[in-house]
Design brief:
By secondary structure, the chain is an all-alpha fold. The protein has one domain. It contains 9 helices and no strands. Helix 4 runs antiparallel to helix 5 and helix 7 runs antiparallel to helix 8. It is globular. The chain starts with a helix and ends with a helix. Belongs to the KdgT transporter family. One of its GO terms (molecular function) is 2-keto-3-deoxygluconate:proton symporter activity. Keywords: Cell membrane, Membrane, Sugar transport, Symport, Transmembrane, Transmembrane helix, Transport. InterPro entries: 2keto-3dGluconate_permease. One of its GO terms (cellular component) is membrane.
């Protein structure tokens, strides 16, 4: 929501020009990897051996994800305002929505439409509100950096380190 609210409609062209090539290339490569991996890797992933834990989902997630928090903090410190604004586009590409779209279009998985709506709706509502009221955009855009540690904590809190020992070196 906050990321969507921080985007100016007039700046979308600059943001697309700055990071569009990177995002489109990452999505295309992830789609090709998904199509190839789905034919080579078993449906439930590799369960034994050195590559235990390797699955098509793991490969696609690794190919299309970007550390948005790291990108945002580096671009705000060293980059231009437009490069920092590209964080939003890269965040869209790095979320579960793009992974679901890649897996769905590659014919590997199917998802109900409400799952896509749940992934995109907060961003679209934030985008609309941020463009309707500049004060809301300013207010919510400050929250983007504030929320990064909470995302990191939520992700890190769910990591079970014993899984590493159970899945092998690659897992």
């Amino acid at each position: 929501f906050c990321m969507g609210a921080s985007i100016k409609l007039s700046a979308t062209g600059t943001v697309l020009r700055k990071s569009g090539t990177l995002v489109v290339t990452k999505i295309a490569v992830a789609w090709v990897v998904a199509a190839i991996a789905s034919r080579i890797i078993p449906e439930h992933g590799v369960e034994v051996g050195f590559f235990a834990g390797l699955s098509t989902l793991a490969l696609v997630a690794a190919m299309d994800m970007t550390n948005g928090g790291l990108y945002a903090s580096i671009m705000q410190q060293y980059g231009t305002k437009e490069e920092a604004g590209a964080f939003v586009l890269m965040s869209l590409e790095s979320g579960p929505l793009m992974t679901m779209i890649i897996l769905g279009t590659a014919g590997i998985a199917s998802f109900e439409p409400h799952v896509f709506v749940g992934a995109v709706l907060p961003f679209l509502v934030g985008f609309a509100l941020g463009n309707l009221d500049p004060e809301l955009r300013e207010f919510f855009s400050k929250a983007v950096q504030t929320l990064i540690p909470f995302f990191a904590f939520a992700l890190g809190n769910t990591i079970d380190l014993t899984v590493i020992a159970q899945t092998g070196l690659l897992g």
